[in-house]
């Protein structure tokens, strides 16, 4: 039995194919059609044309990943959008026609994801970090985003950006211009991972700093989100029962933060 979703995909894509062109010319034609649909802000049509390009089963044009990222962003498919934009930046580099636009869209994705509603249920997970090749690709995309050749600096900047924007308050509604809760920042010195915590919970600010030798530790961090307490907790890499970092409740943000921390630990472990 034909998969229903595949049937509808083929049906939707059929109207955008040209029956008489060889696949390499059809690929170029569809890419031009995608650009026209984007110019007209016809995102659904552009998505169908991109799907048709996929069905050709040939290497797509260089700009395919950029437009796939842009269209999926407009259709609110954020994870798909981010993967395509990162793929575009890594594959074409600074010489790419849409290099700057892709960087700007990735930055926009950060703010889009941060506006997603919090999860309804408690969640305890372990981060999923894949192959070394994927880790390298992730780090290269951050180097491009933050315009640095230093991979560690790029990941640290990403982590600190997330920690600053989503500092823990424990409040449903944050008070403007008020110092509350916990504010973290990470650093790397002499191959060790440093964590600084500013604590405003008692009304009087206090500062603590720790250093961690990550060699021999499990980089796959655990985290837990509790909606009723408006918090997500990341557990210590050396003790899965000890809360290491807390941020305000946002499942998408904590997933990205855990992923970045895990990749940073992995990178430090092989240096």
Describe what this molecule looks like in 3D.
The protein has 271 residues and is α+β, with helices and mostly antiparallel strands. It folds into 2 domains: 4-114, Serine Threonine Protein Phosphatase 5, Tetratricopeptide repeat; 123-270, no CATH class. The chain contains 9 helices and 7 strands. It has helices at residues 4-14, 23-39, 43-55, 64-74, 78-92, 99-114, 132-146, 151-165, 251-270; strands spanning 123-126, 182-189, 192-199, 206-212, 222-226, 231-236, 239-248. A hairpin with a 4-residue loop joins β5 (222-226) and β6. The longest helix is centred in the last third of the chain and has 20 residues, at 251-270. The protein starts with a helix and ends with a helix.
- The tally of structural domains comes to 2
- Order of the strands making up the biggest sheet: 1-5-6-7
Judged by helices, strands and strand pairing, the structural class is alpha+beta
- Could you tell me the radius of gyration in angstroms? 22 Å
Task: Profile the largest sheet.
Answer: 4 strands, antiparallel
Portion of residues within helices = 40-55%
**Overall form:** elongated
Number of strands: 7
Strand content: 15-25%
Q: Count every helix, treating DSSP H or I runs of 4 or more residues as helices.
A: 9
Spans of at least 5 consecutive residues with low confidence: 1-15, 116-131
> On the 0-100 scale, what is the average pLDDT?
78
- Give the N-to-C terminal Cα separation: 51 Å
Order of helices and strands: HHHHHHEHHEEEEEEH
């Amino acid at each position: 039995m034909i998969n229903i979703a595949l049937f509808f995909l083929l049906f939707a894509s059929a109207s955008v194919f040209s029956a008489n062109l060889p696949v390499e010319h059809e690929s170029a034609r569809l890419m031009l059609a995608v650009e026209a649909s984007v110019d007209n802000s016809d995102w659904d049509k552009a998505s169908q044309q991109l799907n048709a390009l996929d069905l050709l089963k040939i290497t797509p044009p260089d700009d395919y990943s950029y437009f796939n990222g842009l269209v999926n962003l407009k259709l609110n498919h954020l994870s798909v959008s981010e993967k395509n934009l990162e793929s575009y930046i890594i594959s074409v580099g600074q010489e790419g026609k849409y290099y700057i636009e892709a960087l700007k869209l990735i930055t926009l994705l950060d703010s889009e994801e941060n506006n997603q509603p919090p999860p309804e249920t408690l969640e305890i997970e372990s981060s999923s970090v894949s192959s070394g090749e994927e880790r390298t690709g992730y780090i290269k995309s951050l180097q491009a985003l933050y315009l640095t050749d230093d991979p560690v600096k790029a990941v640290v900047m990403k982590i600190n950006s997330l920690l600053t924007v989503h500092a823990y308050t424990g409040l449903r509604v944050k008070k403007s211009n008020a110092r509350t809760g916990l504010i973290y920042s990470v650093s790397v010195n002499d191959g060790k991972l440093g964590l600084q915590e500013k604590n405003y919970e008692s009304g009087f600010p206090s500062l603590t700093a720790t250093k961690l030798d990550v060699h021999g530790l499990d980089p796959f961090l655990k985290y837990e989100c509790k909606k009723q307490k408006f918090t997500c907790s990341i557990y210590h890499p050396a003790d899965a029962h000890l809360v290491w970092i807390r941020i305000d409740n946002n499942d998408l943000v904590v997933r990205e933060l855990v992923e970045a921390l895990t990749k940073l630990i992995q990178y430090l472990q092989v240096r």
